[in-house]
């Protein structure tokens, strides 16, 4: 079969999933909740533009007054024969549970896209883990997990195809913020490719079959009954054949997807030493971190990883025990199962319990299974922690039900993950890593999104951009983490050993350790109103020590003064963006200037020549106003 020509786009995980939801649905019932709101907003923007989906129609958007209303609307639309979708997270997902049970019970093909987020317990958190999706695993929906932005797009399409093909609802989820808000350069799927795969799978026939059993006054049928003990149990078991068929249907869809795109996925995918005795099982963005670690541990001569492996879980429900067992090396002696949730009072967390059950029922009692917990509320999960997990498996008695990524000095569950792996050790040659410190609403995040998009769209380089906000948002601090490389970037953790650091607000100097991890010969750019003599009086001693010892190229610029003189007020973002391109030379500076000015035309073209000239001047001002200290 002829493969599609590659087209690359720069999008966030939310946008990637929403693009496919739009292409494959006729209606979205929405209600905003962080961090899933972007998916609904993007979907709504396409409707407002009159964009047709893959079936040639313009979908409808219905915004309700709560997630419970959105779920009810979705249920009604599906019962009426419309292909529906929704987007949610955290408590919003929990409000949808009553309708989720009904949608699954009535075999209605739908996809819910979830940017998985912490469920409020002792405190509310807007950040990501799997506590929300794990709370819905008894609802009966098939559950498909994505690990990165590329997969967020690909698995979103696969979920819609599988839902229609099997006439069964799918919950497609990925890590909130870490994947949902990361911008990455991915291979795009367009409507033509979707039409090809739909034709290959004869999806039209399945849609017609679905519509044929929709509520219709001209073809009345009985549905939504109340049943008593004489029939309920029997009917509850009658869905078994359908559930058993789901993994095989998904497998066939993934086969067709691979033929058309060249990207291969499995329900359970193994990476690492084929003869490993130590294997980690995990879901979501952590899998990319573990795979990055495995690549770094690869023997350059044999091109193999010694005694370490990863099983990446994509299809979590229905749990295909047979496929899972087949994915484990026959040499495996110890498995560590990582869960990104905490289930109080349970003998183990959800994925761990499933793995234990699968192994016991397959008679694999010779494999020791260890449980670990990581990443709650977007807590970092790094290669150092992966190393700690593999080291724990080497012990005669590995620590079980451990945590990694925190110092638990109360119940002493944590693994020690001292920084044994220096990040440069696992940073591929030619990759540029940057960190930018800004103030919420000062334009830093917007400028960095623009920079990442410019480099991705205008060159053959790949870019990854991730932004750390505190929950105060406007007025709070922001940290932008950017990576650039000639190869795809799958590093779902913060930059901790940058080659370039920019501080856009001088008050941060005494508050944050901004350059503690900067590489030797790196560059530090400070936006400041201080003169050179004044600067050395207020610079913290540890900052000066790091600059000297690591031979850091230290530059300053007074972007506030420049912005004021140009009439831009406090908007320093364009000036600092231009300075970044000049100092890093990630792409030729003259080219970057042209791209920035083209972006200015697009953003401010309707505001007149005066506004355009002010911003052009901001771009040109950086080079001549930089001071090397």
Structure, explained:
With 629 residues, the protein is α/β, with parallel strands linked by helices. Helices cover 40% and strands 18% of the residues. The protein is built from 23 helices and 22 strands. The strands form 3 sheets. The chain has a 9-stranded mixed sheet with strand order 1-8-17-18-16-19-20-21-22. Strands 3-2-4-5-7-6-12 form a 7-stranded mixed sheet, with helices on both faces. Strand 10 (278-282), helix 12 (286-296) and strand 11 form a beta-alpha-beta unit. Helix 1 packs parallel to helix 7 (149-166). The chain is globular and about 90 Å long.
Helix/strand layout:
Layout: E1 8-12, H1 13-23, E2 27-30, H2 37-48, E3 60-63, H3 67-79, E4 84-88, H4 90-94, H5 97-105, E5 111-116, H6 131-134, E6 142-145, H7 149-166, E7 170-175, E8 183-187, H8 191-200, H9 203-212, H10 232-237, H11 240-261, E9 268-272, E10 278-282, H12 286-296, E11 309-313, E12 315-317, H13 321-327, E13 334-339, H14 350-361, E14 368-374, H15 383-394, E15 402-404, H16 423-426, E16 432-439, H17 444-458, E17 462-469, E18 477-485, E19 500-503, E20 523-527, H18 532-538, H19 541-549, E21 553-557, H20 559-566, H21 573-584, H22 589-604, H23 609-625, E22 627-628
Parallel strand pairs: 2-3, 2-4, 4-5, 5-7, 6-7, 10-11, 10-13, 13-14, 14-15, 16-19, 19-20, 20-21
Antiparallel strand pairs: 1-8, 6-12, 8-17, 9-11, 16-18, 17-18, 21-22
Helix pairs in contact: 1-2, 1-7, 3-5, 7-9, 7-11, 17-21, 17-22, 20-23, 21-22, 21-23, 22-23
């Amino acid at each position: 079969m002829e493969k599609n020509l590659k087209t690359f786009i720069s999008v966030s995980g939310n946008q990637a999933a929403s693009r496919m939801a739009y292409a494959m649905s006729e209606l979205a019932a929405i209600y905003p909740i962080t961090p899933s709101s972007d998916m609904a907003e993007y979907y709504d923007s396409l409707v407002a533009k009159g964009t047709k989906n893959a079936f040639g129609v313009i979908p409808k958007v219905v915004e309700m007054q709560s997630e419970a209303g959105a779920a009810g609307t979705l249920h009604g639309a599906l019962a009426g024969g419309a292909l529906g979708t929704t987007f949610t997270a955290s408590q919003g997902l929990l409000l949808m549970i009553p309708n989720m049970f009904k949608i699954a019970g009535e075999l209605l093909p739908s996809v819910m896209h979830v940017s998985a987020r912490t469920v409020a317990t002792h405190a509310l958190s807007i950040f990501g883990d799997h506590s929300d999706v794990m709370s819905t695993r008894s609802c009966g929906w098939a559950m498909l997990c994505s690990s990165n932005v590329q997969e967020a797009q690909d698995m979103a399409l696969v979920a819609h195809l599988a839902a229609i093909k099997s006439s069964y609802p799918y919950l497609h989820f990925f890590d909130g913020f870490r994947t949902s808000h990361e911008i990455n350069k991915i291979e795009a799927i367009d409507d033509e490719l979707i039409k090809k795969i739909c034709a290959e799978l004869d999806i039209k026939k399945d849609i017609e079959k679905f519509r044929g059993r929709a509520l219709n006054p001209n073809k009345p049928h009985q549905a939504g009954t109340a049943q008593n003990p004489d029939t309920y149990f029997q009917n509850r078991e009658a869905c078994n054949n359908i559930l058993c068929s789901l993994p095989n249907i998904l497998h066939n869809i993934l086969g067709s997807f691979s033929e058309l795109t060249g990207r291969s996925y499995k329900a359970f995918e193994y990476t690492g030493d084929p003869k490993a005795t130590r294997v980690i099982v995990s879901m979501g963005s952590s899998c990319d971190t573990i795979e990055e670690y495995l690549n770094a541990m690869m023997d350059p001569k044999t091109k193999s990883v010694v005694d370490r492996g990863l099983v990446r879980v994509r299809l979590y429900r229905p749990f295909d025990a047979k496929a899972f067992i087949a994915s484990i090396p026959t040499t495996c002696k110890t498995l560590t199962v990582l869960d990104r949730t905490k289930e109080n009072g349970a003998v183990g967390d959800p994925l761990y319990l499933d793995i234990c059950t699968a192994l016991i029922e397959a008679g694999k009692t010779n494999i020791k299974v260890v449980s670990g917990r990581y990443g709650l509320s977007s807590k970092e999960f790094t290669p150092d922690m992966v190393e700690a997990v593999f080291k724990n498996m080497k012990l005669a008695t590995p620590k079980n039900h451990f945590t990694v990524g925190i110092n638990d000095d109360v119940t002493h569950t944590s693994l020690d993950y001292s920084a044994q792996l220096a990040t440069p050790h696992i940073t591929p040659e030619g990759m540029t890593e940057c960190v930018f410190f800004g103030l919420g609403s000062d334009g830093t995040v917007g400028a960095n999104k623009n920079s990442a998009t410019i480099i991705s769209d205008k060159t053959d380089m790949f870019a990854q951009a991730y932004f750390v906000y505190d929950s105060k948002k406007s007025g709070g601090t922001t940290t932008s983490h950017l990576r650039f490389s000639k190869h795809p970037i799958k590093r779902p953790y913060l930059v901790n050993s940058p080659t370039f650091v920019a501080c856009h607000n001088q008050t941060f100097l005494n508050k944050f350790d901004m350059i503690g991890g900067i590489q030797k010969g790196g560059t530090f750019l400070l936006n400041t109103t201080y003169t050179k003599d004044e600067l050395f009086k207020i610079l913290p001693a540890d900052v000066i020590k790091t600059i000297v010892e690591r031979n850091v190229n230290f530059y300053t610029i007074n972007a506030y003064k420049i912005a004021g003189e140009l009439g831009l007020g406090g908007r320093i973002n364009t000036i600092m963006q231009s300075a970044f391109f000049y100092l890093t030379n990630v792409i030729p500076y003259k080219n970057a200037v042209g791209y920035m000015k083209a972006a200015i035309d697009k953003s401010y073209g309707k505001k007149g020549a005066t506004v355009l000239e002010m911003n052009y001047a901001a771009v040109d001002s950086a080079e001549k106003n930089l001071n090397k200290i």
